[in-house]
Amino acid sequence: MSLETTQIQDKLVETFGESTFHFNQEKDIFSFEVAADKITAVILFLKNDPDLSFHFLTDLCGIHYPDNVVERQFAIVYHMHNWYENKRIKIKAFLNGSTPEIKSISNVFLCSNWMERETYDFYGINFIGHPQLKRILNMDEMVSFPMRKEFPMEDGGRTDKDDRFFGRTAQINK
What sequence ranges are listed for the domain NADH:ubiquinone oxidoreductase 30kDa subunit (predicted)? Predict the structure, then answer.
């Protein structure tokens, strides 16, 4: 029997009620949102339910939405895969911008250990219960989180390049 998106949605709503919402089919990936405090329970359910069997965590990453209200300024996105049915899903949990934190799933999927560390390193999102949450790519001495949108992509005072050669339409002072 083929796993249908309606079956996934019905099981999630039946089990978690209003904690799962905004169900959407985006090309071949079924996506939905989860209340951040329920993420561990939802991921365990998706992994352990015999009909769903999402046993593979493909990716976990962070997103910064600085223009959103404070309660939705950060998001964690989880991509999971059911290899038996070749079905992929995307789960998004929004976090508070003033204290971005969410429970770690490193005890559910061991591979999330490094993914959570990378997300912490670049976005400053605290994964509660992570066994060794520390920087993984940036220097330990850094006090900022470089993927947050409040940091400029490059030095505004650079004079060693001409924006016209990079497809930008900035005016050049002559």
Answer: 33-154
